[in-house]
Design a protein that fits this description.
- By secondary structure, the chain is mainly alpha-helical.
- It contains 43 helices and two strands.
- This is Pre-mRNA-splicing factor SYF1.
- Keywords: mRNA processing, mRNA splicing, Nucleus, Repeat, Spliceosome.
């Protein structure tokens, strides 16, 4: 049954379910908790009296934030899906106004009211409400209102209002200036946007909320003012961009392009060209130059094409138009031709001490002598020796050669004279200048003697007032030049060609006295004296060099000296020659001994005694490194065979087999055995094969075993063949055992001791599995191990016998004899075999079954 109640002169009905809540309200009219319980009940029952109860509660408790917030939220939810001109909107607005009488300090109420007014699109009224909210709330709560206010002014086309609102907001939050600039750009107020952007760029403490650097902001400012020259009137563009050029020296290419673009858009094309020219003459990096030059060339190309189109479409074009068009094309072509030179200028501005770039610049001016001279002059004045990248003296030399090529020898000499006074960092640079100067004089001398070149070399090698060290960098290079081997070498070459023997000897003696000679200088000195028939003096020169140098530097001198001495006297001074060889070999390292021992042995063979020669070879074997012994043994054996005969080489072969490494020893054994075979000593050859077999693994050295088998086929019998096969099996078993031992050691080192099976027992198991069991009975496998069992024997039955693939079938009378032969150990020496057995020998292919 429904009940009725009156409120504000009106009667309302309520349900019986609401009666308990009404009774509670009557008893507790000023309790917010009871009103909220009543309102929650009405919300759950979706009662139409919800708004009435809210009004009743607010009449009793007008200062309750919870009641006002719930009531306003309920009224706003009633506006869903309604038109903006619905009268209910005004009722809700009035409800907010009533609420703000009591709740004017509550930001949530203001936020909801402002949001509702923004949806209703009442611009002036909404703005007034936002302003009231800002006045009513404390400043610590303004940050909750301003975002809504800014969104409101951005959503409507009210630029003047928006600007004024943003200006007020920036007083509270100046860090959001970038948002203001974006808004100004969006509404077309570019002049004010540029002013604000320039303002924040000049603030060193400004931090962009979007993470932009100061340089990025500079670029944005330059792009803005350069692309809109007709809209920005309050700023002076040229000073601003030039200030950025001074400030950001590593990113100037884009700034220069922005400044030129500003003048292009302003219609000042000649001024833009001046900017481009200034830019390419001042930038110092290739990247900036590339940016500016590409923009410059593109501007010229577009301007030329546009002018060509205008001229072609104009039916009344005159001769002046054609001339102007030709001038534009010529200017564009000239710009493209200047690119390499301009790029070279950039590199030189980057590093003015770069010598190779100066040389490139000279080549770019090819055909322009005045420019070349100016470039060389600028280069030698600019490059400092201590900072030079490259060789500074090459600039002076190239400068002098330019005058020389043009026939101005006097100017070339002046350049060389100045070059000799430059404080180079290395003596070799100054020496190169003197040598180039002397070579120029040689190219232009007249008569039989180049006096000028000689005088120059004499000046260059003159002793200073005091002696200084060649590597003493505290002294100037001019003071240290007298010890330059380069200058002395050229001086010696000149004296050899144009001087006398006396003067040439004096030059070489000075080089030796100054202790700057090299082995090649000593050799050149000796060869010169030999050409002049001063043989003994040449030999003395070699001996001076030997006294100056140590091994291995003295190797070439000794080699030349001994060869020349042998060719000169041809054994006539045998004892002196022997003394020289002994002196040479006394301290000779093994690496260089081979050549001298061979020369020594050849001397003894041709002019001395054979036993002396053999003694030299024997010494050589002991003196040379291991890798050269094999070659020397071959020579030694050959010489002994030629002089004493083949039998005398046995001792040498024996020595070689003992000394050489395994691979060479194996080769030497085969050759030894071959020699014994040729001499008819078959038993000796077989003994050699048996001795060598110890180092011949059948899996690796199959060639050795094949040679031995062929030997036995030709010279042996059944017993020797069987012996060879037995040795082969034993050697193979030996190598297998070594490999298995190493495997077992590795297993033992990687597994715990208590969990490891005995290594020898494991080897026996492996040998039994592979059919290579050692002699005697193999031990039984341990418990818990799995061993392989041969399933099928020969003939298809398990007769308990394992077939040996290397077993030799012998046609004997009884099984007892066969067993005796199998168990008999054949000695190494040759065994006598009955002729009837030899006659029944089977082919080797059947005997050696694998």
């Amino acid at each position: 049954m429904n009940q009725k109640i009156s409120f504000d002169g009106n009667v309302y009905e309520f349900h019986d379910d609401d009666l308990p809540y009404e009774e509670e309200i009557l008893r507790n009219q000023h309790s917010v908790r009871h009103w909220l319980r009543y309102l929650d009940h009405l919300k759950s029952t979706k009662s139409t009296n919800l708004s009435i109860v809210y009004e009743r509660s607010l009449k009793e408790l007008p200062g309750s934030y919870k009641l006002w917030y719930g009531y306003l939220s309920h009224r706003v939810s009633q506006l869903k899906n309604r038109r903006l001109d619905d009268p209910l909107y005004e009722d809700v607005n009035n409800a907010f106004e009533r609420a703000l009488i009591f709740m004017h300090k509550m930001p949530r109420i203001w936020i909801d009211y402002c949001t509702l007014m923004t949806e209703q699109c009442f611009i002036t009224r909404t703005r007034h409400i936002f302003d009231r909210a800002l006045r009513a709330l404390p400043i610590t709560q303004h940050h909750r209102i301003w975002p809504l206010y800014l969104d409101f002014v951005k959503s409507h086309d009210i630029p003047e209002t928006g600007i004024r609102v943003f200006r007020r907001y920036l007083k509270l939050a100046p860090e959001d200036t970038e948002d203001y600039i974006e808004y100004l750009i969006s509404i077309g107020r570019l002049d004010e946007a540029a002013i604000k952007l320039a303002h924040i760029v000049n603030q060193d403490d400004f931090i962009s909320k979007h993470g932009k650097s100061n340089h990025q902001l500079w670029n944005e400012l330059c792009d803005l003012i350069s692309k809109n020259p007709d809209k920005i009137k309050s700023l002076k563009v040229d000073p601003i961009i030039r200030g950025g050029l001074r400030r950001y020296t590593d990113q100037v290419g884009s700034l220069w392009n922005s400044l030129a673009d500003y003048y292009i858009r302003s219609g000042l094309f000649e001024r833009a060209r001046d900017i481009y020219e200034e830019a390419i003459q001042t930038v110092s990096t290739v990247r900036d130059f590339t940016q500016v030059f590409d923009a410059y060339s593109q501007f010229e190309e577009i301007a030329t094409k546009k002018r060509m189109e205008e001229v072609s479409k104009n039916p009344n074009r005159t001769e002046d138009d054609e001339v102007e068009l030709d001038l534009r094309l010529e200017r564009f072509e000239h710009l493209m031709e200047r690119r390499p030179l301009l790029l070279n200028s950039v590199l030189l501005r980057q590093n003015p001490h770069n010598v190779p770039e100066w040389h490139k610049r000279v080549k770019l001016y090819e055909g322009q002598p005045h420019e070349i001279i100016n470039t060389f002059t600028e280069a030698v004045q600019t490059v400092k020796p201590q900072l030079a990248v490259g060789k500074l003296h090459t600039l002076w030399v190239a400068f002098a050669k330019f005058y020389e090529e043009n026939g101005q020898l006097s100017d070339a000499r002046v350049v060389f004279e100045q070059a000799t006074h430059v404080p180079y960092t290395k003596v070799d640079d100054l020496a190169s200048v003197w040598c180039e100067w002397a070579e120029m004089e040689l190219r232009h001398f007249t008569g039989n003697r180049p006096e000028e070149a000689m005088k120059l070399m004499h000046r260059a090698t003159a002793m200073p007032s005091r002696k200084v060290g060649y590597y003493d960098e505290t002294e100037t290079v001019q003071m240290r030049l007298y010890k330059s081997l380069k200058v002395w070498s050229m001086y010696a070459d000149l004296e050899e060609t144009f001087g006398t023997v006396k003067t040439c000897k004096a030059i070489y003696d000075n080089i030796i006295d100054l202790k700057i000679a090299t082995p090649q200088i000593i050799i050149n000195y000796g060869m010169y004296l030999e050409d002049q028939k001063y043989f003994e003096e040449a030999f003395r020169a070699y001996e001076k060099g030997i006294a100056m140098f140590k091994w291995p530097n003295v190797f070439d001198i000794w080699n030349t000296y001994l060869v020349k001495f042998l060719n000169r006297y041809k054994g006539s001074k045998l004892e002196r020659t022997r003394d020289l060889f002994e002196q040479c070999l006394e301290h000779c390292p093994p690496k260089y001994a081979k050549v001298f021992y061979l020369l020594y042995a050849k001397l003894e063979e041709e002019y001395g005694l054979a036993r002396h020669a053999m003694n030299v070879y024997d010494r050589a074997i002991k003196a040379v490194p291991t890798e050269e012994k094999f070659e020397l043994f071959n020579i030694y054996i050959k010489k002994v065979a030629e002089i004493y005969g083949m039998p005398k080489t046995r001792e040498i072969y024996t020595q070689a087999i003992e000394v050489l490494p395994e691979d060479k020893s194996r080769e030497m054994s085969l050759r030894f055995a071959e020699m014994e075979t040729k001499l008819g000593e078959v038993d000796r050859a077989r003994t050699i094969y048996i001795h060598c077999s110890e180092i011949c693994d059948p899996r690796v050295t199959s060639r050795f075993w094949q040679i031995w088998k062929e030997f036995e086929v030709r010279h042996g019998n059944e017993e020797t063949m069987r012996e060879m096969l037995r040795i082969k099996r034993s050697v193979q078993a030996m190598y297998n055992t070594q490999i298995n031992m190493m495997t077992a050691q590795m297993l033992n080192s990687t597994t715990p001791t208590e969990n490891t099976v005995d290594a020898m027992r494991l080897l026996d198991m492996k040998a039994a599995d592979s059919g290579e069991a050692p002699q005697g009975s193999a031990p039984a496998p341990p418990r818990g191990t799995i061993s392989f069992v041969r399933s099928i024997t020969e003939g298809g039955k398990d007769d308990g016998k394992v077939k040996n693939p290397d077993e030799i079938e012998l046609d004997l009378d009884s099984e007892e004899e066969t067993e005796e032969i199998e168990e008999e150990e054949v000695p190494v020496e040759k065994q006598a075999i009955p002729s009837e057995v030899f006659g029944g020998l089977k082919p080797v292919e059947e005997m050696e079954q694998d």
